[in-house]
UniProtKB/TrEMBL annotation:
<dbReference type="InterPro" id="IPR011041">
    <property type="entry name" value="Quinoprot_gluc/sorb_DH_b-prop"/>
</dbReference>
<dbReference type="InterPro" id="IPR011042">
    <property type="entry name" value="6-blade_b-propeller_TolB-like"/>
</dbReference>
<feature type="domain" description="Glucose/Sorbosone dehydrogenase">
    <location>
        <begin position="71"/>
        <end position="373"/>
    </location>
</feature>
<dbReference type="InterPro" id="IPR012938">
    <property type="entry name" value="Glc/Sorbosone_DH"/>
</dbReference>
<keyword id="KW-0472">Membrane</keyword>
<keyword id="KW-1133">Transmembrane helix</keyword>
<feature type="transmembrane region" description="Helical">
    <location>
        <begin position="7"/>
        <end position="26"/>
    </location>
</feature>
<protein>
    <recommendedName>
        <fullName>Glucose/Sorbosone dehydrogenase domain-containing protein</fullName>
    </recommendedName>
</protein>
<keyword id="KW-0812">Transmembrane</keyword>
<dbReference type="Pfam" id="PF07995">
    <property type="entry name" value="GSDH"/>
</dbReference>
């Protein structure tokens, strides 16, 4: 009896201690919030164009940190050259987050013309390549046409550090609807503005080279067709259903994420390499289907899975894109030679919409749990900072 008791007690104590250590390890690496929502809050944001963290400092950054919370369907993010970031909310507001992570109560601007219907609303945001000098900010939003029809447009504002003024329409009358409005805008390495547009729930738009819908558009900073466009208009590529993410890799190649069919035909979401003038198949082909003159995706989700992919960024030879219905951060490794899809944070933060890279080498992602299709958690919607070295 004494021998059994003498043996069992240390084993029990050791097991208990291992259980406690394991609990706190999981908590420290996976859990973002305490009950008061204050754990791992970012104390300082990087400046656009700076590189504030050395590799050793990055090792000390938590796997996940809260940048901001209490947002309402954040859609697009940009870092400002000297102070914090701007974030769009789908209901029509642009919000400012200071360098120390404080979300300013008063919006930078509330755009009264924004029509929030279904997936429509205020979407993408981009800074002009010469923002330091001209202070131009570009926005993409849904609005009502003169006949009450739903349309989208890209506009330009001047940002004075507190508010936005002097709206100028850059591209107008992009077909819209309650769904499939696209909406991502980014300036490319060529200083041209790239715009993703959905098919506005009319698949025939995607194959019509003269329609602004179902395309990736490429325009000058004034909205004119960019020099070298393949069809003499604003279209750069066509045959898209609802693209919501674009990014360039280190070699200047353009990549895109795109929503596949929904309803009974759900699935077949796409990750595409974009080439000028090419037809990406919608609605003629989907998934792994092929047809002469049409381009199939590099990776697609298949019929058994749905990513509902949105924003995408590129870092250290990997692509990272947000999943709305997939409720995950997806990573594509070795995209050109042997693409591999890796899933991170599945179901942990709910619906994810945007991914951008900070000058600190961290990923900044947004939740989208207040968009009518998610289950809001305490503090939603949030902007989270992800340390890619700890994925």
């Amino acid at each position: 009896m004494m021998t059994r008791r003498g043996f069992t007690l240390p084993v029990i104590l050791t097991g208990f201690l291992l259980l406690i250590v394991g609990f706190f390890y999981v908590r420290s690496t996976k859990q973002v919030e305490k009950s008061d929502g204050k754990e791992n809050v970012v104390s300082e944001l990087p400046l656009h164009g700076s590189n504030s963290d050395t590799p050793s400092e990055k090792a000390d950054i938590p796997a996940v940190s809260i940048v901001a919370q209490g947002l309402e369907v954040p859609w697009g993010l940009v870092f400002l050259p000297e102070s914090g970031m701007l974030v769009t909310e789908r209901k029509g507001r642009v919000r400012f987050i200071s360098k120390n992570g404080e979300l300013k109560d008063d919006p930078v601007i509330t755009i009264s013309a924004v029509k929030q219907i279904g997936e429509g609303g205020l979407h993408g945001i981009a800074l002009h390549p010469d923002f330091h000098d001209n202070k131009f900010v570009y926005l993409y939003y849904t609005y009502s046409g003169s006949e009450g029809n739903t349309l989208n447009r890209v506009v330009r504002y001047t940002y004075d550090g507190n508010s936005m003024r002097d709206e100028k329409i850059i591209v107008d009358a992009i077909p819209g609807n309650s769904n499939h409005d696209g909406g991502r805008i980014k300036f490319g390495p060529d200083n041209m503005l790239y715009i993703t547009t959905g098919d506005a729930q009319n698949p025939s738009h995607a194959q019509d080279k003269n329609s602004l819908a179902g395309k990736i558009l490429r325009v000058t900073d004034e909205g004119k067709p960019a020099p070298g466009n393949p069809f003499g208009n604003r279209a750069y590529t066509y045959g898209h259903r609802n693209p919501q993410g674009i990014v360039w890799d280190k070699d200047g190649n353009l990549w895109e994420t795109e929503h596949g069919p929904s309803g009974f035909e759900t699935g077949n979401d796409e990750f595409n390499k974009i080439e000028i003038g090419k037809n990406y198949g919608w609605p003629e082909i989907r998934g792994k289907q092929t047809k002469e003159g049409m381009i199939a995706p590099i990776i697609e989700s298949g019929r058994a899975d749905t990513w509902a992919p949105a924003g995408i960024s590129y870092l250290n030879d990997s692509f990272y894109f947000a999943g709305l219905r997939g409720q995950a951060l997806y990573e594509v490794e070795n995209a050109i030679n042997s693409p591999k899809l890796v899933t991170h944070f599945k179901g942990e933060f709910g619906r994810l919409r945007e991914v951008i890279i900070g000058s600190d080498g961290m990923l900044y992602i947004t939740t989208s749990n207040r968009d009518g299709r998610g289950i809001p958690k305490s503090g939603d919607d949030k902007i989270l900072r992800i340390n890619p070295e700890k994925l």
